[in-house]
């Protein structure tokens, strides 16, 4: 199966007809969620609604308010998070995972578990490859 995903002479994997990679739902979904910030937003929201400033702190150092807002808008536009605007003084906004986002988060937790279990082996193989070069 690994060979079916090996790059061919073009940039399109062998199991995709030419020109369909960009239209592939899996590839598009991975582009959406595999970004550095999206992967930090999901665990920051897994325990319920979070206000913007708290979310900014939970996501961690390095993210700007602009990048957080951009990423949240993209996740919201794809149905993965929900935004609630409270008409108060001052107004505030809370974000939470949608049911679809909760489902995806469970999958991401499974991926994280797999990485934690196999990362030492991956590092060992990588070190072996580097040492043999």
From TrEMBL:
Residues 24-123 form the HTH hxlR-type domain. Residues 1-20 are annotated as: Disordered. Keywords: DNA-binding, Transcription, Transcription regulation. InterPro entries: ArsR-like_HTH (IPR011991), HTH_HxlR (IPR002577), WH-like_DNA-bd_sf (IPR036388), WH_DNA-bd_sf (IPR036390). Signal peptide: none annotated. The keyword Ribonucleoprotein does not apply. Residues 1-14 have a biased composition (Polar residues). GO terms for biological process: regulation of DNA-templated transcription. The keyword Transcription regulation applies. GO terms for molecular function: DNA binding. This is HTH hxlR-type domain-containing protein. It comes from Ralstonia thomasii.
């Amino acid at each position: 199966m690994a060979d079916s995903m090996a790059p061919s002479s073009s940039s399109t994997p062998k199991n995709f007809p030419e020109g369909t990679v960009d239209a592939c739902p899996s590839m598009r979904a991975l582009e959406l969620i595999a970004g550095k910030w999206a992967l930090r937003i999901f665990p920051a929201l897994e325990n319920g609604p979070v206000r913007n400033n708290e979310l900014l702190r939970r996501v961690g150092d390095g993210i700007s308010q602009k990048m957080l807002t951009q990423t949240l808008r993209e996740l919201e536009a794809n149905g993965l998070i929900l935004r609630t605007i409270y008409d108060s003084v001052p107004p505030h906004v809370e974000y939470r995972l949608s049911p679809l986002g909760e489902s995806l988060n469970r999958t991401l937790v499974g991926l994280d578990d797999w990485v934690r279990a196999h990362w030492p082996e991956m590092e060992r193989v990588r070190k072996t490859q580097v040492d043999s070069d």
